[in-house]
Amino acid sequence: MEPGDSNSAAGGKTQSASAPPVEGVAGGGTSYGWVDGGLRGTSLGAGVIDHTKVHSEDLLHVWSMPSTANVSQQEAPRPLEKVNLLAARNERESFQIALRPKVSWSTSGIAGSVQIQCTDLCSSSGDRLVVDQSITLRRVVPILGVPDALVPIDPLSPQISLYPGETAAVWVSLNVPCGQPPGLYEGEIFITAVKTELDSSRTESLPKSERYRLYRELRSCLDITEPRDYSSPEEMVQRLTSASTTLRRMLDNPALQDCQESNGFGDMMDEDVMNNVSVRLKLSLTVWDFTLPVTPSLPAVFGISETVIEDRFCLEHGTEGWYDALDHHFRWLLQFRISPFFCRWGDSMRILAYTCPWPADHPKANEYYSDPRLAAYAVPYAPILSCTDAAKNSLRREVEILKSKPHWSKAYFYLWDEPLNVEQYDMICNISNELRSYSPDVRILTTYYCGPSGSELAPSTFEAFVKVPNVLRPHTQIFCTSEWVLGTREDLVKDIVAELRPDLGEEWWTYVCMGPSDPQPNWHLGMRGTQHRAVMWRVWKEGGTGFLYWGTNCYEKAMIPSAEICFRRGLPPGDGVLFYPGEVFSSSHEPVASTRLERILSGMQDIEYLKLYSSRYGREEGLALLEKTGMYLGPDRYTLDHGPVDVMRGEVYRSCRS
Amino acid sequence: MEPGDSNSAAGGKTQSASAPPVEGVAGGGTSYGWVDGGLRGTSLGAGVIDHTKVHSEDLLHVWSMPSTANVSQQEAPRPLEKVNLLAARNERESFQIALRPKVSWSTSGIAGSVQIQCTDLCSSSGDRLVVDQSITLRRVVPILGVPDALVPIDPLSPQISLYPGETAAVWVSLNVPCGQPPGLYEGEIFITAVKTELDSSRTESLPKSERYRLYRELRSCLDITEPRDYSSPEEMVQRLTSASTTLRRMLDNPALQDCQESNGFGDMMDEDVMNNVSVRLKLSLTVWDFTLPVTPSLPAVFGISETVIEDRFCLEHGTEGWYDALDHHFRWLLQFRISPFFCRWGDSMRILAYTCPWPADHPKANEYYSDPRLAAYAVPYAPILSCTDAAKNSLRREVEILKSKPHWSKAYFYLWDEPLNVEQYDMICNISNELRSYSPDVRILTTYYCGPSGSELAPSTFEAFVKVPNVLRPHTQIFCTSEWVLGTREDLVKDIVAELRPDLGEEWWTYVCMGPSDPQPNWHLGMRGTQHRAVMWRVWKEGGTGFLYWGTNCYEKAMIPSAEICFRRGLPPGDGVLFYPGEVFSSSHEPVASTRLERILSGMQDIEYLKLYSSRYGREEGLALLEKTGMYLGPDRYTLDHGPVDVMRGEVYRSCRS
Questions:
Q1: Chain B neighbours among A 45-84 (CB < 8 Å)?
Q2: What is the mean pLDDT of chain A?
Q3: Would you state the pLDDT for residue A453?
Q4: Of these four, A104, B238, B502, B623, which has the most CB atoms within 10 Å of its CB?
């Protein structure tokens, strides 16, 4: 508004045309009331607000935001509009409800609490998506100031606190089961200002001092009535009278007054109240007759650090609790269309990666490996940690068992993370020779971002990188390269792919970790929502056939489940951390997903849409769709807003529905 | 760490020397555990944490921060050290306690609650600074994400909630009374992890269903004992027995179990518990034998919008509630060494400014005007709003009364905010002529940042600005100019001052509002703490004899006391808003100070230190002290850290104590 710190005198003080004049600054106070909130002030008055008599619309702003929005505490209110969503069967579609108090109606240090109640979504033919099963609510909690953790809201008490001057967000997910009949499903979400639990506990429930009083009175009453040898009937009458007096005094306790009037089931809000005072968010979901394949078309393998689990949950390797914890993590992560592997790092980036903690002959192993949601699994190469004969024998037996199974085609070995020199390459080759002696069709995955140092493979670093398959053939089948190497040059993809031999079963996969950094797609905290989701758009456009991510739970060491989550030094915030221990946020042991993990799932689902479209109209048309909608044009040219995502999905729906 | 988005291949991936190697990224997992929190993990275990058995030091970080620090939610922990403070009598000195959870010990969606209990501060000669009277605790609440609002902590339940991954801050103020004996006062602050009120209300207090059960049992017990005609002694025995059984069952209610064991005063923590599990912050305060003058040496006049008060608190002008509200604001602001004036803007920036809402012949007027804490007061020029004969007569009578009083020397008229053209200058001159006819020694204050447009006062804008006294003499005595005009050019002060006639009682005051902006001192939200405090350092160094600020409560219009605080469009955040309505944060009606208002008070106190020093050693030495300590060298060269502030104060203490 004002040149400010420059030494300019008169005449420099101008007011921009659009800004209103300002009280006290060149405007005669006329700007006062310029941004009039339009509160229905008269009904509220100057005293403490009785939220049961005031429409919640007067107490808070409510509006919806797409799942790719990072709704910050400073997010400004928008008009409330109906939410229209599209989802296939076996798909999860999410959006957010943003809430911001207009006034404070609580007396306990927060602006107020709101209750969020969702109806089932119903179709005109009577089919339903049921709340809590298919519809879930989570509050969005900031991590390092960035909205990221999605903490489940207790369905029995679906309330969240709002703070003065802060926008809160609730993440609503609709999970469409595989068997859900297609159709238009409609429902409503009621958002209602309520007393906070603290307000309630203060006014409705018995405070400590009252409980002591009650306790003492009950005891003294018991002293009166306690059976003994009575001297006379008169004494008994007196005792009964005296007990009655005490009892009547107790019944007069103010904290018990509402018990007389009410029916005893006052905690859930009745429908009339909701109809009269709640903000109603209308929600419609079109379920269409496409079913996302249960097995993801693109295997995306994600690491879970067993070390972190052992430390934080104080579990000894191999104990029952340890197996339970790994099992819990495995099953929880499967819902995100990713194929987990557990991992432990040895020295020089040698890595023990395994999808199932049980040996191949254990019943759990077959359950794990043949789970249709698992697109790929890592077979543990146990000798990587201790190269004993026993380890080698056990490995051989493991391969013997697995290679005979139908799921063997999903198996891979991940032996080394980013080998850097000829010595490390030789190790991989030696292991490969061993493994191929057990089964000639083993698949070995190797991650890399450069050629081996100490060899003169090629004159330039990029050429050395591109020529890696020549060095690792036949010791690697899955050549997994960092997206960081490409930078924004998508055209380099063809150089990588040109070196591969699909006829020998060779595949090109990619990964992201510390790099690439902004503005390219990655999963760091603080990146835009579409930037998170675009990692998978990039994979699909570049044509890789699989994806690897190094870590989902790789926060800093802690020995207590509820310890603060610290990101590791030297890593960009959020790198290697896609979910959090539930214990940090509540007494729940369920992991808490990040918004980034949800956007990974969305990206994986987008791939299925794009694949469906391409299967009908060809890959060129699929690529044209990406471009035409403006959703994704390249690693530094993709949509920053949500709109094109819905346009793409809508176009697939329109052109592919039967 | 990594070139990232550039198209660089192998070899570019380097690790900086100081960063540890990172699991999964070129380091073999060795960075895991690098930043080991050093938790006393073994005592905590993997289950729910029992905060009564664990030292709070294992549950949270506690450290102190100076009052000029903006402690953000992302503030990193520091070691806990003893806090050493220095204060004169009649001075307020503040610091902050920062708190950050190491783990979560609550089960209700927050990391946990802490109780903060302060001992009295005692001197070796037995003198005391008493908690709640002289020592107050307020929690620092972010406004637009910036720590700013200071919400009082209930002394009866001094608890605050901590959230996972967030640093919270408590603002501790020590108010040294005028009569406090000098000496070294020592005390401690105990910070103890406690159950949250919500945890407590769930487990300790009676939930609704339990209350209903209790109510029903009490009623049925009363039915048994209620006096009536008994058929036999046996019936009475049976009734007494039956009542006893019911009473025993009630006493077995789990919610009453702790009443048996405890002493009935369970809410305050006993000393043993605190000694065993609390984090102890040692605090020492040196009170020295200087007493800050009750009347501030530099009059600082600050506006309070009566319009905002009327609207937000739904008060009709002139009603009893309206007088109460103004009185409340006046008295509350006096504690900050500022001299409030109420104001209402007319058109073209004509302004009605008045310090006392009662007429001069009202007893309250004398109470207001002769309050020694008031350094200057505005006399209302009523005809500015409606220029009737009645208004003129009332004004004449007002001046007649006031000019005979000893406090008349504190009086000033503030008629027009920033006149811009010759027409507005003429209005001021006309009013001045009228006022001087009532009393020749009236003082008129005029704010301005430029010369009048439409006159050819001087060839340049700065010269036109400097020559304003030539136009306004004798119609203005207090020439109050914007610091923005000076920019960083302190040397221009002499040009302004050279035009004034101190022999005619002319004074130079300054003001800040929208400008100057960063990096110069001002009170906008988001500026550094020393930048807030430096406004007054600047005033003292430049030698102005007074200061004006346009508004302390000029947030956007609202018609509900607890309505969200919105800053006005077109103003930098925080401009014109130095405190908030208490109703936004709790049920309290007490205004909530901003950290900026506290830093204004600190700056006003610094002026008294500098004045004391200069009165002993001369102004040149005072200026040298500013420079030598590095506290303030110029509008863009002042300390960003707190250290030099304490050095300056310590130097004044050492060289001026008797």
A1: 45-46, 48-49, 73-74
A2: 88
A3: 86
A4: A104
pLDDT confidence of A226, banded at 50, 70, 90?
confident
pTM recorded for the entire structure: 0.85
pLDDT value of residue A561: 94
Q: Are B23 and B30 in contact (CB under 8 A)?
A: yes
Q: How far is A576 from chain B (nearest CA, A)?
A: 9
| A254 at B interface, C-beta within 8 A | no
Cα B267 to Cα A204: distance, rounded to the nearest angstrom: 19
User: What is the C-alpha separation between B295 and B409, in angstroms, rounded?
Assistant: 13
- Residue B44 clears pLDDT 90, i.e. is over it: no
Please provide residue A302's backbone torsions phi and psi, each rounded to the nearest 5 degrees. Answer: -125, 135
Six token digits for residue B27: 């380091």
- Residues 6 or more apart whose Cβ sits within 8 Å of residue B409: none
Question: What CA–CA distance (Å, rounded) separates B633 from B637?
Answer: 5
Give me the residue label for tokens 């802690």.
A558
**Contacts with A585 (C-beta within 8 Å, 6 or more apart), sequence order:** A141, A149, A151, A592, B104, B109, B164
ipTM score for this prediction: 0.81
A625's CB contacts (< 8 A; 6+ apart) are A610, A613, A648, A651, A652
pLDDT in the model for residue B199: 55
Q: Chain A, 352-411: which have a CB under 8 Å from a chain B CB?
A: none
Please indicate if any CB of chain A lies within 8 Å of the CB of B230: yes
* Averaged pLDDT for residues A543-559: 96
N- to C-terminal Cα distance for chain A? 57
The mean per-residue pLDDT over the stretch A305-320 comes to 95
Please tell me whether residue B508 adopts helix, strand or coil conformation.
Answer: strand
Closest CA to A418 of B34, B29, B8: B29
Which of A315, A385, A481, A568 to mutate to test binding with chain B, by most B CBs within 10 Å of its CB? Answer: A568
For chain A, give the percent of residues with pLDDT over 90: 72
Q: Is A564 on the interface with B (CB under 8 A)?
A: yes
Please report the residues numbered 295 through 354 in chain B whose beta carbons come closer than 8 angstroms to any beta carbon of chain A: 303, 305, 307-308, 311, 313-315, 344-350
Interface contact flag, A11 B461, Cβ < 8 Å: yes
- Tokens (6 digits) for B108: 């209700």
